[in-house]
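Suppose you are handed a protein chain with no further information: no name, no annotation, nothing but its sequence. What can you learn? This example shows the usual starting point.
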Amino acid sequence: MSGVRLEKLVKRYGDVQVVHGVDLEVAEKEFVVLVGPSGCGKSTTLRMIAGLEEISDGTLSIGERKVNDVAPKDRDVAMVFQNYALYPHLDVAENIAFGLRIRRVAKDEIKRSVTEVAGILGLTDYLERKPADLSGGQRQRVAMGRAIVRHPAVFLFDEPLSNLDAQLRTQMRAEIKRLHARLGVTSVYVTHDQVEAMTLADRIVIMCDGRIEQVGTPMELFMNPANLFVAGFIGSPPMNQIKATIVAGANGPEAALGDPDANGVAHIPLPAAEGLHAATGQSIVLGIRPEDVLLQGSGEPGSVPFDLDLVEPLGSEALIHGRVSGEPFVIKADTYGDISHLNEINRFHVDASRVKVFDAASGAALYQPEGARERARGRA
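A reasonable first move is to predict its three-dimensional structure. Written in structure tokens, the prediction is:
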């Protein structure tokens, strides 16, 4: 097994550059997820690793070997595609074994490998069925089996669950996670679904416009986003973002919402960070997670006015939609089996230690808590 290293990787189509000098190191046995909106370059980057796209510039290494000019079949990688790519005229066993037959592996070894992989994926009872007789989840497991049976150095997944319904996606996520724990093969996984990224990844790589915005563990990115793009992308529902100005408060820096000179403007305490003390008057964007809003004691001094719009019940939780200083704002709250009390909310509190502060002009985080380990990438 091997790690994967990308150094200043670039992809151009004619004069149009779509991947801009990506640097990334995937450790051996690590499960790394590339995530971002459509068109951000994540699938193109994966296809360059697989050898399905030519590298315009930069270096790609698998293990200690540079593979820029190595044919896909010789890179020792296996790829699972979004559309399964199964042969409809072959049964499950033949689909799984296809790659081994192409490589002229002995029949006894093929049979042993197919039996082993079918047992791992729960396909033993389906080996004689054709793809048309399988469910979507079973077809995806067959596609995974065809990759696993080769014992590659690296697994590549290109949005493998996007064709499945919501319940099946949840089931397959768990199966992929168990499979990685069992096999321990270096894996690079592409998705546009941040929930998939959060649940599967050892580390997440967030991309936008062909660049890496931030790399870190799921919780590092959730707790300490490097910029407004990451803050708005990770989390469901996403982090609330409100325009404000830093002002000096009696107990430290505060964020004045709306016009800081207006009478009765709401103030939210900011974290006690040295850099924020020196930034009085700076225009900022406050980041507040919906689940970090405190409804208890909402009538006390210092609470923030909230204009309720609607309550969206989700069972044990509800999303409360409204506006703060004229800007959209969402609160996530427990229902305790009843939402009637949520329809009366007009103020809330927020713990200063959970507030994130971003520069309004650049979008970059103005501070990071001591000990934060995330690694942000610039957008230059």
